Amino acid sequence: MATIRLGDEAPNFTAQSSEGTINFHEWLGDSWGILFSHPADYTPVCTTELGTVAKYKSEFDKRNVKVVALSVDGLESHKGWIKDINETQHTTVNFPIIADEDHKVSELYDMIHPNANDKLTVRSVFVVGPDKKVKLIIVYPASTGRNFDELLRVIDSLQLTAYYKVATPANWENGDDCVVVPSIATADIPGIFPKGFKEVKPYLRMTPQPNLN
Prior knowledge:
Layout: E1 14-17, E2 20-23, H1 24-28, E3 32-38, H2 44-55, H3 57-62, E4 65-71, H4 75-89, E5 97-99, H5 104-108, E6 123-128, E7 134-140, H6 148-163, E8 166-167, E9 178-180, H7 189-192, E10 198-201, E11 204-207
Parallel strand pairs: 3-4, 4-5
Antiparallel strand pairs: 1-2, 3-6, 6-7, 8-9, 9-11, 10-11
Helix pairs in contact: 2-4
């Protein structure tokens, strides 16, 4: 089984989901995407996670991000679980959940780690760009719920740095100053970043976030 690395093309697949058949690349279209796995249906942490994602859908929409979840259980199980999620999390699941009973997608994305559990997926997260390349991989143990505010923060950074010659420093939040990438000579910064810059060290130059008015 090949390991997926940053910059690799996200493996394509066709699978059944709670919203019908999905061909992953076609479904993404020109959008960014998040594919995230869950150990199993009717698990407590996953129930809170999927409820949270449903509540955050407008934030993902603002960023042109489509979200799809995966669990190793089947469609009928998903349907019952979605009812529980809607009831207990006071929301409506508004994104597809892939049924991966044969582990086809889980194995394609190396979501099952035998030393943790030989049948259930870990909490994997893959962020995929419109070019279908993998931009981010995070793997959590089954016991730890994900922080979706952090995923939004990372997507803001990924989208900013994809289109501007900046990087984002530690604990960066949308609106904070950014790091000018080392490949830009200091003498060239004013022509590229007209908002100005601060040279902390020759290798550490800060500029206001360039995509904000």
